[in-house]
Design goal:
The protein has helices at 4-19, 35-42, 67-79, 97-107, 124-127, 144-154, 173-183; strands at residues 25-29, 50-54, 117-121, 134-139, 158-166, 190-194, 198-202. It has a seven-stranded mixed sheet, sandwiched between helices. Strand 4 (134-139), helix 6 (144-154) and strand 5 (158-166) form a beta-alpha-beta unit. The protein is α/β, with parallel strands linked by helices. The chain is built from seven helices and seven strands. The chain has one domain (4-208): Vaccinia Virus protein VP39 (Rossmann fold, 3-Layer(aba) Sandwich).
């Protein structure tokens, strides 16, 4: 669903964190069918736990902070008219999405019970409390309130050299607004790298920063 370039960026971010020995876990907020979570888990070169947070029951509604495009998109979803990527069915209409993600990991040789992978269902406001320092977080949660909560919970636990990859910064206005508001007084603490996604990296000394 993310496209090849975004998936490659996630894989490279995991490898980079491992090579630089950035401490901490991997987090994803917004896992859908689990494809990007699979990429994150499969790219590990050292033992790291991966926590996937999602309602696994469909996307929550946007608010006025997300603008008219998001409100129109949610009305399509709510009314049953939404289409998925490349003419596939929209994933949010699937039942038992949690079981679907478990099945996907098992099919690719990473049963979650044996692979340090944890699925955490629920709204981010209720469920997303990182249990450890965070090396890498992938935020693919679209709306203003969701992105805001994720940043408030993840950034304080982000390790030096840790990275947040924000999928929807250039697509959903609510996501961009939440990011810009959160980092308005913190920009000197982070490096901001625009690729297919926005990468926000907690600063180390100059020699430790990634080169792109």
């Amino acid at each position: 669903m993310l496209g090849l370039q975004a998936l490659l960026e996630l894989s490279e971010a995991v490898v980079w964190a491992d090579q630089r020995q950035v401490p901490g876990i991997i987090i994803e907020a917004g896992s859908a069918r689990g494809g990007s979570g699979l990429v994150l888990a499969a790219s590990r070169q050292q033992a790291r736990a991966v926590y996937l947070y999602d309602t696994f029951e469909g996307i929550p509604p946007p608010t006025e902070a997300d603008g008219q495009q998001a409100l129109r998109r949610f009305e399509e979803i709510r009314s049953g008219r939404a289409g998925g990527i490349r003419k596939q069915a929209y994933y949010g209409y699937e039942c038992n999405l949690l079981d679907r993600v478990r099945q996907s990991f098992a099919e690719y040789g990473m049963p979650i019970e044996n692979s340090q992978i944890f699925l955490v269902p629920g709204l981010y406001q209720e469920a997303l409390y990182p249990p450890d320092q965070v090396a890498l977080a992938h935020l693919d949660c679209d709306w203003y309130e969701s992105v805001k909560v994720c940043l408030e919970r993840v950034v304080p636990r982000l390790a030096p050299g840790g990275r947040i990859v924000i999928d929807d910064y250039d697509y959903w206005v609510g996501c961009k607004r939440a990011v810009d508001e959160y980092f308005v007084n913190k920009r000197d603490e982070f490096e901001f790298v625009k690729r297919r996604c926005l990468h926000v990296i907690r600063q180390l000394d100059a020699d430790a920063l990634p080169h792109h």
